[in-house]
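A note from the maintainers: we've had questions about how concatenated examples are separated. There is no special marker in the raw files; a new sequence line simply starts the next protein. For clarity in this README we add a label.
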Amino acid sequence: MELLQNGPKDGPVYLFAHGAGADMNSEFMTQVAEKLGEKGVRVVRFNFPYMIKRAEDGKRRPPDRAPKLLAAYEEVIQHLGCPVVIGGKSMGGRMSSMLLADNALRPEEDRLAILGSACLGFPFHAPGKEPKDRLDHLEALTQPLLIVQGSRDTMGTKEEIIDYINEKRISSSIQMAWLEDGNHDLKPRKVSGFSHQEHIESAIEQVAEFVFKLQR
């Protein structure tokens, strides 16, 4: 499995997984990884199996099912062999939160060295759809989880997520960092007074602070 790394080799490790439609080399993934690397975080990127196949034959295919995605994530963690903060963009973030929750339920001797998870643009539900089972693993989560979310994200607006917390459908311990008027890619409209770059920089600051706090 090919891994891309940014930042100092002795920095705290953030394992950063891609979303459903773009691989580890996308502009967003690259910019976040490089900027976090400049802040002293060792960022590791990888492609899920379906993206590896796409790179080989050029054919677009849907994401693998969750068990295969989680197995690939776990393989990278075991390969690194050190404590890590996991996370990702959209689907990659959701997989990281599922692995975080699952890991906490394992016998202590079988647990992976996961310190927490930091997600960018979390897909709480498909656009215009109900969450179905996407919230189940978040209901009783107590492990450190940061979600940086645009307030008008069609996969989970600020109002929707506040309702989920109030209804106890997701844990109140989840650390939410809101980007005003941001969409699923954290991009705000011009009328908001914010720029996309400002929101990406803010997200990077939040993730870096979270990673360093957990690695102290």
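[label: protein 2]
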Amino acid sequence: MAYKSIFTPLTDFDGVSPALALAVAFTEAQDAHLDVLCLGLDRTQNTFYEMGSNAVVMHAAIEQAHERAGEINQAVRAYLEGSSLRWEVINGISASAGVGRTVATQARFADLAVVGLPYGDNKRHEETLVLEGLLFEADCPTIIVPEGEVTARPESIVIGWNESAEAVRAVRAALPFLQAAETVHIAIIDPPEMGPERSDPGGGLAVYLARHGVRCDIQVLARGGYKVSERLSQHVTETGSDLLVMGGYGHSRFREAILGGATRDMLEHSKVPVLMAH
């Protein structure tokens, strides 16, 4: 297995984008093809306009979205022109509320998507919708990139293992990285006493990885009063790892948004890229 098609969507680009920079680095490292979607967004709320003005307002908003997509496209092309990569840059427009579906349509045949952190200061709601569109609608494994310097060839990787279907999908999607890494740590935080793996936490996963040529160790960790996301983030730091692999949105998106959860907490505080699948 290898990544041959890498995808990244952009709603803005001023010459600096951690997600685009890492997508370029991944594409080079994997000898893949890079697809960049430049999105112009219509952020108008048509229901608030007086009857009779909607058509004019909508036309102007669509024209602005096209112009914005073109501006991003030009900037991205200038950024990629000097590279030796195989790449394609395309435009798309969407209403803010529907951006997830627009992105999902373009990402259906990608092996891997790369986006920036959707949560935190100065982040717009559509960035969360983009991530949800990739994971839920396109079913595309996605790497979420924090600010700061990261590596395209992770040497140490932590797998956040909780026996879930989402975690299994994430591990399978991460195999090219896991096979190339020097060390892989299976981190299990407070495994359930009556779970299916109660007698051998992580054992089945370790056998699966070994059959794919991945050497790994299993570390069962206690929460010790921390949130799961905090303890997992702490373990990533302690092991000096470059990438975290975990399932995304084990609960419903509504519950994650209202009550929070390991996915949201992890993304808000992660210092390394996180590879997720749902």
